[in-house]
Amino acid sequence: MLSIPGRMMNSGVPGKGGVPSDTGGWVDLHLHSCCSDGSDRPAEVVRRAAALGMSGLALTDHDSVQGLDEAAGAARQYGLGFLNGVEISAGCGGIEVHVTGLGVRPENGLFQETVSGLAGGRSRRFLDMARRLQDAGYPVLEHAEAAVRDGRPCGRMNLAARLKEMGVTRTVQEGFDRFLKPGGAGYVPKPLIPVEDAIKAVHAAEGLAFVAHPALSKSLLRLLPELLKRPFDGIEAYHMSHSPAQVGELLDLVRARGLYVAGGSDCHGTIKGQAPEMGRVRVPLAVIRPLLERLGVNGQWIIDNGQRRRDA
Ligand SMILES: [Zn+2]
Ligand SMILES: [Zn+2]
Predict the structure, then answer these.
(1) CA of 214 to the centre of ligand 1 (A)
(2) Are 63 and 101 members of one domain?
(3) Is residue 255 located within the same domain as residue 233?
(4) What is the pTM of this model?
(5) What's the number of domains the chain is made of?
(6) Which of 137, 152, 179 marks a domain boundary?
(7) pLDDT tens digits along 45-87
(8) How many angstroms is it from 207 CA to the middle of ligand 1?
(9) Helices then strands (H, E): number in the chain?
């Protein structure tokens, strides 16, 4: 368990340099909403974050920035710090690599092009998977087409949830494991862009690019030295899948390389039918101070509508 106990503080109090000076607060800079494959509206994600007493958060939906305005508005309402975020699906050496962008200005042209290209690929893949399931005798295509039409989440989770609703599986996870992983009847590989392009898009949008959850798998961890030859700004040292020892090692690596630290729970709400994981990974506010300073944000560190607000 990576939970690091800390005093519950309201973030809005600017300290030295405008960045909240309290060292006991904590944040979660890796969260998903229903704008990608989470269960909850962005505002509900923020409400839960506020109820847990965190100081601030970032919404990092997969290849989508649709939820940022709603989340930023809710964060302002609850007095929480908020950073625009995104988690871009990229590839390197045949391995899927997620690139978390924090503090992005989503109106940037190259960034928009990259994210909307991935989102288009995401819905094409979703429909391909639905067609495969349909051909295998599980009629989900109509449901999938309606989801794309209505702008609802178009990921494997959606199809797994549908299979459960149809009584094909007992749990969402079972649908995922049986049908939607490599080798499964509905599986179609994810469209990925080169990791360099993902970093470039984040930088074009004036954000910082992080290697997401590098210890999620052995193959990803082995790839980390190679990844760090790219112009990443930092590493997500904190994540649900990281052991305390791995967090420590990643923090050492960050320090040795002069990089920034980020991370969070990667909570997707109740999408898999389990209790939300938010709150189980608590990134100390103190460790993200350099990141906030680099982004030039202070006070409630809200970045939205392309404007870095000096204070909220
Ligand atoms: Zn990820
Ligand atoms: Zn994630």
Answers:
(1) 9
(2) yes
(3) yes
(4) 0.84
(5) 2
(6) 179
(7) 999 999 999 999 999 999 999 999 999 999 999 999 999 999 9
(8) 18
(9) 10, 11
